[in-house]
Amino acid sequence: MAKGSEEESWLRPVDFSRRLEGLELTIGPAARLCGITVRQLAHWTDVGHIPYIDDGRNRVYNYAAIEKAALIIQALEKSYSLNGAAEAAQAFLDRRSAEQAELEAMPIEELQARIVARTYRLQELASRIRKDPVARPMAAVSHPITRPTAPAEESHLVSTGVARLIVFFQSHPNTVFNAGEIASFLLRQTEEVAEDLETLAGRRFLSRLVYPAGNVYRFLSGR
Known about the structure:
Elements lengths: L23 E3 H8 L3 H9 L6 E2 L4 E4 H15 L4 H24 L2 H11 L3 H6 L7 H5 L11 H8 L2 H11 L7 H8 L3 H13 L3 E4 L6 E4 L4
Antiparallel strand pairs: 1-3, 2-3, 4-5
């Protein structure tokens, strides 16, 4: 079959994010996935920084353990000590868990209000994306947002792709997402979301975590 034929047009990127939750690897593959040595991972486990499952023969690492190792690596790259990196990684995970629990318990009306509130900083953030078309429509909004936003106005403010992503990540500052998850939430095409995510990552609005199953992204709260 010829490449790019109409018969292939129905194919879409595969989202393994949910399946990764059931991932279990022994120490060798886990270390390779994290980009560290077996000795490093064994040491981090020995000192209690990385959880593992004892299957009676081997140490087995699940997705949560590998994610924590990846977060520790990020902190080490910022010159944290190992203990400091582990504490920073755990604090990140604890904040994310608390945020997820809060969002799950939040009434939909309050959740919508929180998302709208996040648009207060949207003009300033979007204006920094010099080469993206979102900067122009945002500049056209002449009045400050100082009152409850009417539905039509709210739609105008968050309708563009990059702007909606900024609002989305500001509303979930301690959570990582892949393009497929965000596309489902925002009702957009995964390919379009992936392009916008790369735009924001390239301009340091997001940090990118690279995994074999695909990249995940997190908001850089200092922006």
